[in-house]
Please model this.
Amino acid sequence: MASISTPSKMRLAQLAQLSAKIFNNIYNPTGERTGNKILRKRLIGSTVTEWYPKRIITLRKITDTFPDMKLINQEEKLRLEEIAKRKKRGKGAPKKGQGKRASLGTKKKK
Amino acid sequence: MHFRILSQARVRRDIKTRETVSATELIRQAYRYITRNEQVHPRIRQQAQLMLNAFPSHARPTTIRNRCTETGRARGIFRDSRLCRYQFRLKALNGEIPGVKKAVW
Model:
């Protein structure tokens, strides 16, 4: 009977190579970094962009596409009314060049 | 859902970041693969690293910040409901979050 001896290193390497070939694995004895773990990662773009709610339809779009319906944007209407009221009392926004900062500039120039 | 948070500068910045990440993700991963691959010639790896550095800073996924979809708060966010802890509490008590119940014992 032949005595059982451990196979040489070269033979073991050959075995590993062959096994990798059979089982469709990558033969990488030195443990070289191949960057495969980056390719293995899932792409996150599509999930990441849908975190915040998206405004798909706005009232402006509806009023623009259906002008016959005569829809009123209540918020906008209230805002405009408020501005008109303030203007009446003389508390409206100043005209361009009449504001605080603009008048400061002219004073400095003088 | 409140769309008022969409007018917040930090939320808009985050939205922009997310869009940039999504748009540049594929090409960035390709460059990353080249830089991390030791079987590629060092010079090519270095060039890929330079290309990576040339991307804007908000192309990196780590710059994404999960913010509350109600208030825009950046801390104490539950990922499942996308809400900060206080908004989560309010909504849960109001019965607006399915499957959440206040514990009583």
User: Anything to note?
Assistant: Chain A touches chain B through 18 residues (CB under 8 Å). The mean pLDDT of chain A is 86. The two ends of chain A are 115 Å apart (CA to CA). Residues 28 and 34 of chain A are 9 Å apart (CA to CA).
